[in-house]
Design goal:
Layout: H1 8-15, H2 25-39, H3 41-57, H4 61-81, H5 106-116, H6 118-130, H7 135-145, H8 148-171, H9 178-198, H10 200-213, H11 240-263, H12 266-276, H13 281-284, H14 289-296, H15 305-323, H16 334-343, H17 346-349, H18 351-362, H19 368-380, H20 390-401, H21 403-406, H22 411-420
């Protein structure tokens, strides 16, 4: 999609240099995570090991039951000794969750699950390494998991994904407004930068504490870092502190920040903030004449220099008119505003403002709702039901996606509608 030369966006811009596109915010964040995963060796190794672990531990119902039994035994012992308390919602069973490149937040869920049940997973692998058909796989996973490098990777990505995961959930809300969305992106960048500058000591302390609880050796940060495999020629020796802080922590965070900057570009940010100035909510409280004129400058084919001068005065007349009119007092979005302008003939009175509004509506700002529709299509049109006609599939999708609205309608209304479609047996 975003290929520099042959991507869909590049091909469209060859024909029209004013064709702007803003991708789904939440999906961009997840693509950001996946991009870093594929670029850094240690992060990629972390996810490869976790994927392998999920295949072994959760690959059969028997091994899943064994993991649940070990959790239940540990909880029972802790309850008997008074280490934990009982109560509703406490001490629930957890399991490993598989990460997926198309599922938002799945990487963070996998990491959090592994950290929570790490000791139970190790105990299960020790049992499997003694007597099972997965002896070799269990031994390899034990060596990989009980390694400081893996534990450091696990906690580093937990912190980074914890920051982006909160933002991702906020961006998936149906009522997310553009201004707050862009502020959240800025907050995400700032938090990652603070982590880079000030949170090394707390991260190392957290990793060391976790290793101490699970009897994993913590290397001395002042010792020379021991590289795996054969020593390379002309390689400068560094200590463990420099390796984990500079070569690992700083590198991953810099890559994360770079991906965020690439996916949330300055142009997209300016476009979205300008579109937000057209919102009619709260008596057009977000109106900003200068930003809207700046928005018009993105489209030189539609607004000539003369029209830009005329637009300034027309915007002032427009905002004074709509704020004093009761017809525009209870609108929620720019779509409602465009409809109301046509109904009241304001599109003819303020043609340049209406052109701005039209361009804003043409800008495809995808939301998480659009992505959910594609997920719903996979559920509705599955392998056993893959020959649906367009009309029938649309009807089913509407019922599935907008089910919160259909819940408000009584069953008797549906039954009468169904019976009135044609004569049926048992009709009441």
């Amino acid at each position: 999609m975003r290929g520099e030369y042959n991507g869909l966006k590049a091909l469209i811009l060859k024909d029209n240099d004013c064709a702007y596109f803003v991708h789904c915010f939440a999906h961009q964040l997840h693509l950001d995570v996946v991009a870093v995963e594929k670029k850094h060796t240690y992060v990629e190794e972390l996810y490869v090991v976790m994927s392998y672990l999920v295949n072994v531990v959760a690959g059969s119902a028997k091994r899943q039951d064994m993991l649940r039994e070990k959790q239940a035994e540990a909880v029972f012992e802790a309850l008997c000794s008074g280490e934990i308390l009982t109560g509703r919602g406490l001490n629930q069973e957890s399991t490993l969750k598989r990460a997926g490149d198309t599922r938002w937040g799945s990487h963070n869920n996998t990491i959090v699950s592994l950290i929570n049940i790490f000791s139970y997973v190790i105990t299960l692998l020790e049992d499997l390494a003694v007597d099972s058909d997965k002896k070799f796989e269990a031994k390899v996973l034990l060596d990989s998991l009980q390694n400081f490098n893996f534990i450091f990777s696990l906690h580093l990505m937990k912190k980074i994904l914890g920051i982006t995961n909160d933002l991702s959930k906020a961006l998936q809300r149906n009522d997310q407004d553009i201004v707050n969305a862009m502020k959240l992106v800025t907050v995400c960048r700032e938090r990652i930068q603070i982590m880079r500058d000030k949170e090394w000591d707390s991260l190392l302390s957290e990793v060391s504490s976790f290793c101490a609880r699970h009897r994993i050796k913590v290397p001395d940060m002042n010792d020379v870092f021991q590289r795996e495999g054969r020593p390379r020629r002309n390689t400068q020796e560094v200590n463990n502190l420099y390796h984990y802080q500079v070569k690992y922590l700083y590198t991953v965070i810099d890559m994360q920040l770079q991906e965020l900057n690439n996916r949330f570009t300055e142009t997209n940010t300016e476009l979205l903030l300008s579109v937000a100035c057209l919102s009619p909510r709260d008596s057009f409280s977000g109106f900003d004449k200068d930003k809207l004129i700046h928005f018009a400058r993105f489209y030189p084919r539609d607004f000539s220099p003369t029209q830009l001068v005329l637009l300034e005065d027309q915007l002032l007349n427009y905002i004074a008119d709509v704020r004093s009119s009761n017809d525009f007092s209870e609108l929620n979005g720019i779509t409602d505003l465009a409809i109301k302008m046509v109904d009241t003939k304001k599109d003819e009175v303020y043609p340049l403002v209406y052109l701005l509004l039209t361009l804003a509506l043409l800008l495809p700002v995808a939301t998480a709702t659009v992505e959910r529709v594609f997920s719903a299509m996979k559920i509705v049109k599955n392998r056993l039901r893959n020959r649906l006609g367009d009309e029938w599939m649309n009807d089913i999708l509407i019922g599935y996606i907008e089910r919160h609205l259909f819940d408000l309608i009584g069953d008797d209304i549906f039954m009468k509608r169904f019976q009135n479609m044609c004569s049926r047996r048992g009709q009441t």
